[in-house]
Structures are given as C-alpha cells and as structure tokens.
Amino acid sequence: MSPTLASDRFISALAATLDIPAERYESADKSYRSICTWLERSESRFSNVDIDAYIQGSFRLGTVIPPISGEEHYDLDVVFEFDLSKATKTQQGLYEDLGYELKLYAARYGMQAPSDWDRCWTLNYADTAQFHMDLLPSVPDGQRQRLIREQRAMTLDFVDRSISITDKNHGNYAHLSEDWPSSNPHGYADWFYECMKPAFDQKRRAMMLAEAKADIADIPVFRVKTPLQSAIQILKRHRDMRFSDDPDGRPTSVVISTLAAHSYGQESSVTGALISILQSMDRYIVDREGVSWIENPSNPRENFADSWEQEPARKDAFYDWLDTARTDFVRAAEQGDLNTIIDALAPRMGRELVEKAASNPGQKLLSEASVIKRAKSAFQKLVDAPHRKPVAWPTVPVGYVQVEGAMARNGFRETVFHNDGVPLPRGSSLSFVANTDVPRPFKIYWQIVNTGEAAAKAKKLRGGFEQATVTTGTLIRREDASYAGSHTIECFVVKDGYCAARSGLFVVNIQ
C-alpha cells in the first residue's frame, strides 16, 4: 500500500517527537567514561587490567524513547569488559571487585551508594542527569564460544565479540570455572547496524555534506537516525501504551528490535519502513519442533522467545499487539485528513504525543490542516483506552444499530438505564439490546472495554470483539457489573466483510 502524503509526513513528525535530546547521549557518554577513568587510576583493583567499556541496549542501537510517564528518566546499560582470565578470577570475585570500586566512586562524587542485582550494579545519578546506569562486569569469551559453535556446526558470525558475564544465580558463581553465562552485546549491535548499513551510510554522508564536515567521522553515530531506528521507536511507544496497564506482559524490546531489523528493506521513509516491518516481522519467528524461536543473531544458542513456552500468554500478547499495530498504522497510513490520523493513533501512541507531533512547526505538516485539540474529558479517555482493539473492517454504512441497557439486582425486575453515565451498583446484572435496520444476513459483534484499577488488577480489561449468535429474535448481550469504574459497550453489524453499522459507545459507570 502507498501511504498518503499527510500520513507519511505525520508519521515522520511522530518519530522526530520521540527522539530524545542529543545532550542525553552526550551526558551518558561522559558519565561512563568517567567511571572508566576511575577504574584505571593507580589505586584501583583494576589498575593493571585492560578495560573495554561500551554502551549496550537502546542507547547503543539509537532506539531509546522517553517513558510514557512523561518523566525524562532513562536506563543506561553499560558493559565493562575486563581482560582477565577465568582461570584466576571467579564471577563473584569480579562482581565484588567492581562493586568495591563503584562504592568508592559514588562516595567520592557524593552519589547514592550503588545497588547490587543478580548480574549488575546500578548507579543512580542526580535528577539533572536524568538516568541511572546499570554496569555489567564481564570478561572476553570469544575463543571458547568459537569452539562450542564449531562443535555444534553453528554459524560463527560475530562469535569473537562474545563475553562471559556474572550472575549470582549461576552454579559456578563462587568457583573457578570456564563455564560462565555468555552474552554478546557487541556482536548484536554490529549485526543490527549491518541490517541498515546502506541507509545509515547514505544518511551520514548527506549530513556530512549538509554541515560541511571534513570527515564522515565528525558526524556522531547517535545523530544519524535511519527509518529502521525510527520505526522501532514508534513500535516501542505503541507497545508501551498498549500494555500500560500490564507492563510485565508486554513484548520485550529485543524481540521487537530483532524482528524489525530482519524485516527492514532499506526503505527511505519512516512510514515505508514501519508498514513493511509490520507486514513481515512475524515471518522471522521460527517453529522448532513446536517451540517458537527468535534466534539471537550474535549467539545462535539463545532464543529471545524462550519465555513463550513456559508462559504462553506472552506469545499471545505478542501476536495480539502485532495485529493491533498492523491495524492502527495501516488505517492511519490510508487517511488524508490529519485529525483522522491523530484519532487513529492517539489510543496507543498517546493523545498528548500525537498532538505535539502535529503541532510541531519544525515538522512542516500540511499547512491547511488545523489540529483539533480533544478535550481531556472522562469520555475522551474512554475513547482512547489503549486496550480497545481498533476496528479492522472497512466501513460501508448500510443502516443503523442502537443499544438499550437494562439492570436487575437481587432478582428484582429489570429497569432501563440510559447512556448518561449514571452510576450502577456493583454486583447487578446487565443486559443490552441491539436494534438494527440492516437487512439480514449479517454478523453481530460486541466490544466490551473495561477500565479502572479493579478490572486491571483482575486482568479483565478486555477490549476485543466478541461475535454473538444471530437468531430470529432480539439481539441481546448479558454482562455482570463486576468491577468498579467506567466501562463501555459497543455493537457492530458486519455484512459481507464490511462494517454496515455501529452503535457508538454506550458508557456504563459502576460504583
């Protein structure tokens, strides 16, 4: 499909709005290099050890985004690779040596003492820095990993970048052993940049010419943003909003980044990359004897989807998110009206963010389009509920459908209630009757969307489409008023694959 001019320009503006300030990268770089200097001083336990320190994760890949809370506080993951032998140093010894030096560093600069975790140490910087740093101790492990892969006839791609890391839960944590947990963040980053090398090099050269730089190296890597990186930022924001009520159930960033990089076809626009990635990213999930496998490109023994087998809900969550993202962005890309595009993306990108993107004068959106600022009303929040599945059926109005509600409690006769938000008692029984003039045959779907703390805690937010059995009688949907909060129900009449009528939201407040 070809996106409209309005949608293409808007999605580019959306990506730019998600970018973090350049000074965040510069501050992060300065901070971890300061620790390197500290570890290399003559009094340090590592004074005679070669140290290779580097950033990993979203900062390294250029895909970091602001938290949805609006508070600009970031996680910075840094690997400290010490040129030490596992024949003379245990995981515990390396971990504790790094902790000892970090405690001295924190005390020297008036910082909070570092926190210790299973694999890393965390330094919390002052609010002005707006990040905390996770520091992972490691040693080189390329030679050992090469032998292991050769014995198993596995690819040797990026193997020489492999490292061994510390982990308190590992069986050999306190013992001298060659067997440590392995990782390869350097190799993964190398693979990721290879996936977008043509687009990256072209963008960097263009920036060099535009800024009259003498050397391409004068353009820092973090300033070069390809459509792949921008698309991943948008997808991560979409995921964060979609799972804002269930952050533990969201697909991991490494899964999204890996599948997106595999799917990227060097598209020159953010919209083109985004649509292409969404259409094909699940093709790179391999079935290995019934096990879903997303191979780590820098370590073929690692499966990024390993949790899906033990927790099938995570697999379901990924495919549900992917289906929602496809619908959202394809629908937005087809629109020519800026406000329609905003309304399509607001539920799972955040209305404040999309309106900010549309209002940014530097992005040069369609000058004739004026952005309608939606009031932050209780009803608008219901409309923008992130877990409300988008409508995928094309709309071809044929008639109308209306919904009426009735409530019964403790076996008494039903009483009619209206779509006016008057609170209903929790524990009552509800029935909804749909009346339509659409000629049969057709299919009926109901969409129930719960909100509020009670429903979220019970994992009953719902939001999908539930098909009803259509008989010759009245179209009735029965529900229980189980959770306090504001909820909605909507009826859809689908005929020949098209949405022939929809009722609009019927609001149900339960106290």
From TrEMBL:
Domain (Adenylyl/Guanylyl and SMODS C-terminal sensor): residue spans on this chain: 390-511
UniProtKB keywords: Antiviral defense
Protein name, entry field: Nucleotidyltransferase
Taxonomic lineage from the root: Bacteria, Pseudomonadati, Pseudomonadota, Gammaproteobacteria, Pseudomonadales
